[in-house]
Amino acid sequence: MRKPLIAGNWKMHKTMSEAEELVKELKDRLAGIEDVEIAVCPTSVNLLPVYNIIADSNIKLGAQNMHWEESGAYTGEISGPMLKEIGATYVIIGHSERREYFQESDEDVNRKAKAAFKYGLRPIICVGETLEEREAGKTMEKVKGQIKAALAGLSKEQIAETVIAYEPIWAIGTGRTATAEDANEVIKAIRELVREDFADAADQIRIQYGGSVKASNIEELMAQPEIDGALVGGASLDVDSFVQIVEGAR
Ligand code: 13P
What we know:
Blueprint: E1 5-9, H1 16-30, E2 37-41, H2 47-54, E3 59-63, H3 80-85, E4 90-93, H4 96-101, H5 106-118, E5 122-127, H6 131-135, H7 139-151, H8 156-161, E6 163-166, H9 180-198, E7 206-210, H10 218-222, E8 229-232, H11 239-248
Parallel strand pairs: 1-2, 1-8, 2-3, 3-4, 4-5, 5-6, 6-7, 7-8
The protein binds 1,3-dihydroxyacetonephosphate (13P).
Residues 9, 95, 167, 172-173, 210-213, 231-235 line the site of 1,3-dihydroxyacetonephosphate (13P).
């Protein structure tokens, strides 16, 4: 049985005091929930203050990005060992915003996924098609390319610990959600792709949906057999809505 993972991607939101306030409330309201794994992914300067609040709780810490090198002359970047030491469990890799605005390639995503494991972190690898690609019937072609490239060279054991977030780009921040059935269909196809290269590890890898997830659609999404949780953007910034999403995933 795969345990669902509900992760809040806070993107470039919340100052330190706002992040601390949000996570303190989440810690109280989500205490004791063990049947759903919960993670929050604040911006890099807020990782440590947030970790200091959730260290002894059921909420795990995720970063939003990392560099693949251990250290070096890469101004503005953050390495895996730095994230590990301050308590991160997860790291989001290849979010569509990183791919689009910061020109991250499939090769970069693969390097980062391998580096995540090297330094003891679990990657949440994001994939998804644009509206244009969906309308041209190219969803699977796009997603297949992203998945094959991102996972190349990982071991079966690493695949079992990997999380994939299927986030159709046209559904991110737009209020437009893929139908639960459509999301389930793509996620099922992703799992079969993973099976081609990694056999039974495909039954362990968790594949989330992301894109305008909110309290009102989480139950429908989670009722689908292939969807193992959600990567939540906007609705993770509000205590009540994130709590309702976690509750809806149980
Ligand atoms: P929204 O939930 O705001 O659509 O964002 C989704 C997302 O990009 C999570 O990584």
